[in-house]
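ENTRY TYPE: protein
CONTENTS: sequence, structure tokens:
***
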Amino acid sequence: MPGEKLDFGVMRDSVRDKSAHATERFLARPFPFNPAFADIYVGERDGPGKPASEAIRPSSASDPVRDVFMQMRRLAGPALEGAPSGNAFRERIFYAQARFMEGFEDAYPKAAPFSMYYPYYQMMSYEQLRTYFTWRSRVRAGSVARIDLSYVFLYIYELINNIGAEPGEDGLRKLLHIWKECRAFAGELDAYMPVWLKDYIVINDCGVSFEGLLEREPLLRSFYPDGAGKYGFDFYCGISPYKIKRSPFYTEETESLIAGCFGHVLRRLDRLLGAANASFNDLILMEVEMPWRPFANAIFLMRPEYTPREEKTVTIPGGLKYRYRGGRWTYAKYRGPSPEGRQILSCFFKRIELMLCADAGFRRRLSADGGPIIPLIDRLAPSVGGAALLAEIDRAVKEYCFEKKKTSINVDEAKLELIRQRALLTQERLAASVEAEPQAAEADGKAAAAKSGPPAAVPALDPAAFIAVLPFPDPPSSPESGGKPRDAWAGFIRSLEPAELKALKLILEGAPASAVLECARECGLMPEVLMDSINQKALEHAGDTILDVSDEIYIYEDYLDHLRRAAESDRH
């Protein structure tokens, strides 16, 4: 009516109620593709809060199994009581019925075929239900027979909802078992089980991390080939401003040494940061966070018990991080290095290389001062701190160098036994000789003692003496401390061709990349060739490259002041 106010809240609730009842009637209705649904209980409601009326009754009252199924089907109505708008009706019905049938066993002599997307009891015929529960009874007894794939998925849906399994280790073990046993006739499981096992570990306390499960289960590991390897030495080399692979210390002989040491340091840092619910990638990479729901391609009811009491983070090898905070689950993916992360990574590579050079006796002019990155780490990982992280790097490198130098000793038991036998024979001969000439032996012994003097004391071994202390070379003096640029930087400036010097000064003056590229074109050079030539000469004279040309052209911050002073001195 004109002028009458409309209550949109009432209208919305009315539409919501009608939608809920329509969905319920749809789910309770037998699908036309299967004529065997004549025994299915169909519950339709006359209105909100009214009891359901039985549309179809079983034809025989003498079948106790059929009566159990009828009771199970009647749970579809109460399962929807109080369901909020938009809630997953199918999941609520499935969970209520699965709990009811959790301990049911059967011994049906026949086998009915079954094929359905997202299978659940309400949509199954009497014969299909009996076939499934008979097969499930045998699976629980240890015998997994070949059966239609939809039955296998139904059993897995039960397990991920912790039906017939204790939450955690027991459920995880049973999921792995059914996957392995059914792969021979149900290869389609490979497209789902690796993800569902990961989801199960995220929301359940299984007593093992996903990384630990990968190490323990070769089958699962084959579906995560990148795993932690995706974020390894080569990956970080590619995003680091400091290019360690261009270092004079990096050769075919030292390649495995440097990569192995970096991997060892990385594992130590992840262990340290993991205790603070963080990781090395949190310092280096940016991440994008999105809402997450476990078991997205399965029938799974997200219940209150899956809500942690406090914030929880689960890191998966390969760059995924699942986090519960603020009342919701999310997952985060790394998408690239942050500016702070590039600076931290550059310092880490330099520090590791400098310590390896010191251990190998290789002279290297390189600044690895961690002072500038300590505040960054303090902000990104406050519970660990920058100083502690740098100290952990130093300890890890020393530990790696010490382990590499340890001599491996293999004992041949057969040869050792032969030595024992010979020693015993020698001992017997000596004893016989002593008994025959006791006085001569005593006299000879006294004479020998007089000549040799008292026995020397054997010094105690100090384990710490075997750990090499790797000193850092003195860093170059900084302009702030009043020091002058080293001759190496002046020599570098003098070695530059006019085009190279012009390009370098443009970069020092903060000119845009377009100006530097135009300078290269005017000189008839490709920009990449010009930049690489400058870096090569810096490497020869100062022991390091100075330009990063990955995204834009800029000079590493460590060398800006040295280059400006050297360039200014060259003008005079």
User: Anything to note?
Assistant: The chain has 23 helices and eight strands. Residues 227-404 form one domain. The longest helix spans residues 413-436.
